[in-house]
Every structure is written in structure tokens, then in C-alpha cells.
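hiii so my PI (J.) wants the whole complex modelled not just the main chain, which honestly fair. so below is everything: two entries, each one labled with what it is. i double checked the lines twice but i was tired so who knows lol
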Amino acid sequence: MAADQNVLEAHLAANRERRMEDYTAFLSIPSISALPAHNADSQRAAEWLAGALRAAGLEHVSAERTGGNPIVYGDWLHAEADAPTVLVYGHYDVQPVDPLDLWESPPFQPIVKGNRLQARGASDDKGQVMIHVAALDALLATRGGAPVNLKYVVEGEEESSSVHLDGWLQANRERLAADLAVISDTGFFEGNRPAITVGLRGIAAYQLDVRGPGVDLHSGSYGGTVENPIYALAAILAQLKGPDGRVRVPGFYDDVRTLSETDRAAFAALPMDEDAYLAETGSPMLHGEPDFSTLERKGGRPTLEINGIWGGFQGDGSKTIIPAHAHAKLTCRLVVDQEPERTFNKVRDYILAIAPPTVRVELTYFGGGLPSLTPIEHPATRAAARAIEATFGVEPLYIREGGSIPVAASFEDILGLPVVLLGFTPPDDRAHSPNEYMNLDNYETGIRTVVRFFDELRDTPLR
Amino acid sequence: MAADQNVLEAHLAANRERRMEDYTAFLSIPSISALPAHNADSQRAAEWLAGALRAAGLEHVSAERTGGNPIVYGDWLHAEADAPTVLVYGHYDVQPVDPLDLWESPPFQPIVKGNRLQARGASDDKGQVMIHVAALDALLATRGGAPVNLKYVVEGEEESSSVHLDGWLQANRERLAADLAVISDTGFFEGNRPAITVGLRGIAAYQLDVRGPGVDLHSGSYGGTVENPIYALAAILAQLKGPDGRVRVPGFYDDVRTLSETDRAAFAALPMDEDAYLAETGSPMLHGEPDFSTLERKGGRPTLEINGIWGGFQGDGSKTIIPAHAHAKLTCRLVVDQEPERTFNKVRDYILAIAPPTVRVELTYFGGGLPSLTPIEHPATRAAARAIEATFGVEPLYIREGGSIPVAASFEDILGLPVVLLGFTPPDDRAHSPNEYMNLDNYETGIRTVVRFFDELRDTPLR
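here's the output for the full assembly
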């Protein structure tokens, strides 16, 4: 492997300039998926990427039709018998660029500043896609093959809710059969410390409607004789959580997988400046379940949030009514092994049980997404960790994100694959903001990490 | 007095036709104060009324300038020494008439249907003003004088918040000195049963603002680590009242005057169909303090209502935020001897005491109005009751309205006068609605009641 490594390094060194030219050419295409005016640019980006994958040695490459921007597919399936098959996911579409006046340079004219490459998409996610292209190119050019079978899926609508991805995955389940999905759309921890994202929270979204009088009533003529629906709503909401932030819905925590010693050690290992975090929120103080750290509450515990509330009069001054109805929007963030609709049902049953008989209460389920967790102990996570340590020279941190990456759940649910979230962007990469950039050290080392990860996976039993 | 009565009846009988002509002429002027296009009509109605008051024998009559529609003033101050002075209040402006297509006849072309006179203003309040004009005319024509000194104040902006009345009262305090104010802008109880309104609730209006994060936060990235301002608001609101509707603010009921045996007997004497009342509200059930009847809770007990609430996302579907702030509009209905700002201060202190330290809470006082009560035992109320019994042949019921009549508080606060709310409209008079009407039996008997009331007051010590 040492000889292989020298050959690989020589190839990468020899091709560095071409690699940067390709990267900047890809970044120059304004493939903003949220803006219909850029649909042709997205098409152009898809075709450019298909060409780059073909040039790297991929087969069956095509920019496949969806109802929207194409999904670029390609594969290389000539690994040794019994080698695992790895599905690599990324996206070639980018965020809009406004406010344009805050950019130090035009967003689609990439420039290098020290060890940074600045452009829209430099990190999210064209940079990470190009890491995979470069790794593939290096492997096939220097060894004539890869240690694992590879299938690439690069979509063009991630920044506009991946509206056509799930249908395409459903329609191509057999072709996409694999042992593992690698999503490279995450990044490093604060201080640019290498990290693997091992968990994402799921979600369940719903609405609570409380109705009292048939119409808004005069608060003088009727006040004191009927229930006020806003009061009833407030009384219900106040019973959903305790003052300590713990959800009071019976059975809410039943399905929550207990944090293991390893999990808690991983959370504790993450650098965390509570004062800086608090300042970032603007809240008077941090708050939540007392038995868990801030990062544990954010990444490893479920929530019940009220996202919106309304009812009655909202204008200037005063209006003397008892409103006919009041409403709240709610979401739960979920952790394994919670299931969205089952969680909603528990909340609904509790609310209906505590609702006073003086009002009519209704709950509507909007939908949800499963939480996602590939444990630290999973062989694929272990392989990724070894690859990071071998290339970056440090053990990775393990992050659990509080939010969701819907495509992770899609690969788990539709294709039944474990997902490794292996990404290389710096934590302050300004994705979605002006002056987005990629750290070029992360980029170059990331290419080596991907090669090493595939090598590690060759001998890792995943089934 | 029997001889006087015969002369009075003969006069009223002889003048019935002219009296109806005057009434319909007054009703024909579309003096809609809320619509600037009718300002000239309001001016014309004021001048018409001034002429009618002069014709009845009033002195110092003028349509006095305000910033808006004139206030018509006139007096007769020649009663015997030691006779009390009575200030009579009414208004000559009327409500708008839309929806016009629901009127059975044009709103400003009065028509008689059986014992009803139908027109905008027939009951509210031109009809009641004309009862006073007719009573005055009958007294001065048949006796050459009245038993009490009289001052008439008829405004033209009652249906548009009486914006200039308080200033005019302030500026004319000496000229308006009296022993009693009689407001004829209320009516009879259900079943057209004669009634005196003895109480009105006051009000205190304010807003509650709860602030948490500096901006709306992503509920995935931050959920579980900071307080949700909507939850904090709900928890505060839920602690303001118990499930029985009783306000939990310490000291809230301290200033509430206990209902006397007489008060409770008067409430109990009022016909009340709870099923019909419930159906009218549209609520699933009636609700409120368990130790008080529905009418007691409405007329004799204070409230704390949430008139509006808002915060975060209110659109279709779901938005995954922890909102930066949440708000509620609140009002208290007050009964004697509660004071608006003192009551607000108690609510504010309680809320600030229970507010969690995880959010910033602010309360803003918008203003208020005093409750009003002229007890059943008050000599002026007793005199009005005797007048009703003598003319309508039944003892009056005593009503406490849940709402406020701001002018009642104005006469009490600015002029320091006890107020008797003596009105004659039928309870289903459709005031503010299409096909408003006056019951002509109420109207004719009402004239006799007013004459008798003044006679009763002559010998009633009010000071």
C-alpha cells in the first residue's frame, strides 16, 4: 500500500493544476435550482459533471431526466468479488447569491485567497462532489480500478427540497442496490476539526386548532360566561412541557434510544463554548432537560417546539373580543428509534385527554421524517474514522446534528442503506451566505481520505 | 296630581299626530356620524333638534361647536328652590345602514307597522331623545314649568366614539353642574320587560410581549437548547386563570364590591334561558366562576380575557423555527370598586413574578375606563323604579351590562354625577342592524315615565 500511496501522490501532484481548473470551471456555472431563470445553467452543470465523471473513468454516465433538474448517474462495478458496493451522493445545484453587494468577489468567478477558494458552491456542494471526482480519477488512473464498486448519484435540486429525488430513487431501486451510502454534504467541527456526522434528528409536524364560540364575541357582553379559546390553547400548550423543558406527553420518551457511554463520551469530546453559543442565540440563558448537556439536548434528545401561534386580534391597540378560535403550529424533532406518526399520535392522544370540554380541539398531522443514526461503532463509521486519522492525522470527532438531512432518510428508507455522512467543509464555510469558501487543505486531504475510505471498506464486512 | 295627570294625558292625546310628525321628521335626516359624507346631515339634525327643544320651551338652546358634529345644549332652570337639577343625555347621530338590501323599507323613510316605527335611529337614539322632547313639551305646556331644573346635552358622535364629548364636558363643567345625569340610551329586558340598567363594567387594556432569541432560530439546530417564547407565553397565560375561570392574580378580587342580597335577588329575578344563551354563543358549554350565575358572571364579576395572540409562523403547512418573540392582547372587564390602572399593575406584577428567566417579558398598558354602578338602593334609582311602576304597571328589572357605556363614566368622572340609565327601547330593536324599530307603546308610555320620574325626583334628596 505504501507503493500505491506514492504513485497516488505523484499523480495528484502532477494533476493539481488541471484539478483546480476543473473545480473552478464547475463553480463558474450558476446552477441555482431555486430560480427558474437558471434552469438552463443547471442543465449545463449536469452535462459538465457527466463529462467530468466520464473523463475520470466512470461508466453508464448520464444526466437522467426527472421532472426538474437532471440527476447525474454513473458507476464503476469492476471491483473484486465480494467487494462492497458504495453509493456516493452529492448535489451540483447551489443556493441563490443575494445579497450580492456583500460578496467580496463575483460569486461565480472563483478566486483563491491563501488556502481558500471563494465562490458560490465552493463548499456546498460542488467542492465535495469534485473531491469524489478527483479521488475516482486518481484511483482509476493509478491502479486501473477501485477497491469497491461505486455508484454516483449527484442531484440538482438539493437546495430546493430535492423534490424529484425520492421518486427517482424509488424507480431505480434495483439499479442503485449497494451496501452503503456515502453522503458528502456535511463538514468539520468548530476549529476545523475533522468530524463525522453520525446522527440527524427526524421530524413530525402538525397543527392544533381550538374552537370556542361560533363567531368572535363581544368581551363585555359575553366575558365571564364562555371559555376563551386562546386561554384553552395556552393551557394545553403549557401542559406539553415542564418548566425544565422536558416533554410531559406520556410515553414520549419510550422509543428514545438511550445514549450509550460511547455516545456521551463523543458529545463530551466536542469543543463547546457555552457563552459563545448563548451569544449566538441572543436568548437570556440556555435552557432544556437538566440531565443532558447542551450538545446532547441538541443532537441526542427529542423536542416539542411551538413554531407559531395565532388567534383573535393582532393589530395596534386593543379590540374587545373573545375570539372564536386559536391555533398553533408544532413540530417534534425526533431521535432514533422514534417514528414520526407514532410520536404525533401520542401527542394527539394526550392533548385530546387534557383539552377542556369548553372548547373543540382538533389536531392535523402534516407529515414527518425519520431520524437517522449510523452509530460510532458501525463498521462503515469505523472505516471512515480510520481513513480520517490516516490522512488528517487526528481522530475524528463525532457530531449529531439537531436538524435533518432529508436525503439521508431517503437512502435509509427507500434503498435500505446505512449512511455515512463524510464531509470536508470548514465549519465557517458561509454556505448559503455571501463569500462561501472551501478550505483547500481540507479539499486536497479530503481526496486522500476518500481513497483511503474505499480502501478501508474493501475489507470491511457491511452485510 | 291626579288633575295634573288628566291635563297631561289630554295634552298628549291632542298632540299625538304632531309628535309623530316631529319624530319622523327627525328620523328622516341621515345623520350618520361615522361617514364624513353625512357631516352636513349631522349639522342639519343638530339644528333641527335645537329648534324642537326651543319649541318645547327650553332656553339657552344652541348647537355648540366641537371639533366635529355639534353638541346641542339647552336648559330650563326655573324649578322651585331646592329642587334638584337633572342633566339629560342622548345622541342624535345614527349608525350606518349597510347592508342596505336587507332593509324592508328605506332606512330614512320611517314607516309604521302595527305598534312599531321602523327607521334607522328609531330606537338608537333619536327615539329616546324625542321621548324627552315630548315629556318636556307636555310639562311646560300643561304646568308652565317642570318639577326639576333641566339641562339637556345631546351629542352627535356617540356612534363614532364620542371623540369630542369629554373635552366639551371638561370645558363646561360649571355650566353643567347638576345633581344627577339621566342617560336614555339603553332599553328593556327580554320579553320587553321594563328595566333599569344599574351597572356597567369598566375595562383595562394591555399587551404582553415575550422575547427570547435575537432572531427566529432553526428548530433543528437550536431546538432543546433555548426557551421557546411561545411556550413561555402560553405558560404565563395558563397561570392567569384557573380551569374554573377564576383569575389567579393575587389581589385581583380585593377591590371587587361584594354582591349584596339585593343585587343577587335582582340578578335572580332576570328571566334567563341558559340553553338559548348557549346556542347564541355557539360554544360547547357555558363556563366561569362556579359560585356565580351566568348573569352574575357577566354583569357583576370582573374578567381577564385574552383578545389576541401571535408569534412565529402562521402560514400553510409547517416552518421549523423557534420564534424570536410572541405576544398577547389582554383586557380586564372591571366592576366597582376596581380601578383600571391599579388592576393592570396587579396583573403586571404577577406576570413579571411568574415569568421564567429564560425570556424577556414586557407589559404595556393601553388605558382603561372605570366601571359604573348606581345601586338599586340609590334614591335616584328608586325614583326611576317608582316612575316605571306607576306608568308601565310593573316593577322594573335591574340589569347590569357586561360592557361599558363610556359616556356614563364621563358623566361620573368629569362632572361627578350619579348616572341613571333609563331607556325604553325593546330588547330586539335591531339597533346597528337593518330594520331598526321602536315599539310605539314603549315610546308613548316612556314619555309618561319621564314626566313621572321628574315628579318623583322633586322630593328626592340626592345630595
